[in-house]
Each structure stands twice: as structure tokens, then as C-alpha cells.
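Input record (one chain):
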Amino acid sequence: MSVVRSFERAGRALLVALVLVTVTCAALGPAGVARAESGTVTAHGLRLRSGIWGPVIAILPAGTSVRINARTRDQAGSPWYYVTTAGGSLGWLYAGYVAPRPDARARVGIQVGHWRCQEAGYPLNLHPGTELPGLSEVRTNLKIALALSRRLSARGVAVDLLPAAIPPGYRADAVVCIHADAGPSHVRGFFVDRPSRSPVARAEAALAHALVVSYAHATGIPYVNRSTPNSRRYYGFRAVDPMTPIVLVETGCLTNPQDRAVIDDRPDLVADALAAGIDSFLSGSSGRQY
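The corresponding structure, as predicted from the sequence alone:
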């Protein structure tokens, strides 16, 4: 079982066990503008790091091409890219020395449930997510989100990783909020929810349907509708621009052994399922509304 620990403090180095991701996300541009899926290093000796200000993985010469998997900002507001090099290495680059190439089809925001909730202030800082011995919802959500960002990038989609506090007015072609449920150990299942009222309700219905179909087919986790008035008023729904379609995905029950064996032990499988649904939605082939 993978374990991610992040220790963050302004002005200090950050140490990571799996992937260090301690960043403050911000919208890097509205939907409808030029986007980028790849870029070129513009400065000789640019450090590829395991995390923001984390240990150095490699030194990249000027002219190196990289695939941009996701974008975000650190606490000081400086931009960073989560990239894949031609050799397959994954890591973070300071974006000031990377020239992006505008060739992506769409922009998708991926909210990592409860991620950096301590920075979000009251009342979000009171809800760190489910915690089990040696396991936490935040780490599970983060593993899925990072795997999903790589898959969407490979499809030509620009990705923003979003923390618990989504930047107000964030705009994209779609936003998917990743969470994991909890309850008695015998309870399992996933579900997808959307805002109770929205000017883009038809688009959100199509996105939800596409995700339900792809997720059920790929993961084998049963669909169980646990939608409630509270879940349809999820705080993140109010944070984005009103014209941005947004849905909440409860990927399964972390407290159920069967669901946990998929969502925590096989994040790549979960990411494949979510990417297929998002791709179906973006291509307009999601079928009937859900």
C-alpha cells in the first residue's frame, strides 16, 4: 500500500515518500483560451523535483521536451508543472522556465477531496476526510488524481489539480471532485452527484452519466445512489464559475475491504475509468442524461 506524507512550511524544503504535492492551486486561465499539453525547457540545468521544492530527480538541459500532466501554484503563488520527461520520469518543474505549447483540446479541473484543507480555513479545516490505521482518504484521493491527470494529459487535455478550497470563479470545460466514502465495513459502492440547481444542468447530467457508465464497467464497484440534499449542495459546486460543469465522485467506500482493494491499491484502474468517462463527455458521446 502506497503512503504519501507531505510536510509543508513556507520557505522550507519538502520531503515526500511517494509524490510530494504541497501546492496552492489557482486557475491558470479560463476555458476557451489556448491550452497546453506539452512544453520545452528554456533554461539550462532546470531541476526536475519529486515535489515542489523537493529532492532533485534530474537536471534537464535547455530544449528538453516534457509532457505537462497538471498545473498548480505554490504558497507564494509561483506556477509549477507536474510533468513526464521523454525518459518516463515524473516530477515537478518550476513553470517559469518551461515554454508551453498550446495544443490541448480542453481544460479539466480535478479537485482532490480534503487536500490541503488546513489551509482552507473554517469550516473546511474541520473536515480532513476519513482516517484509518495507515490509510487516509486524502492520500487515496491524491493517488487517483495524479494518475488521472497523466491520462487526461495523454489525451491532450490540460489539467489543474485543485485543493479543498477551489479558487473562486474557477473556469474549465469540466470539474471532477474526487472523494471516497466511509461507513460500516459491509457497506460498499460508488456514486456520482451533481448540483441540485445549475445553469449547465444538462452538461452536468451528461458528465455524471458518462462517469457512472465507465466507472461501473471498469472497476466492478457497484453503483449505489447515496445522493442526499446535502451532497447536491456540495460546497465545491458553488466555488466554480456558474457555467462550468462540475460533479462529485465518491469512488467507493474506503472502509469496505473490496472497495478499498480497488480505490487505494489500484489507483491506475480507477484513473482509467474516470478518464474514459471524462473523455466521453468532452467528445460529446456520453449518451443519455443521468
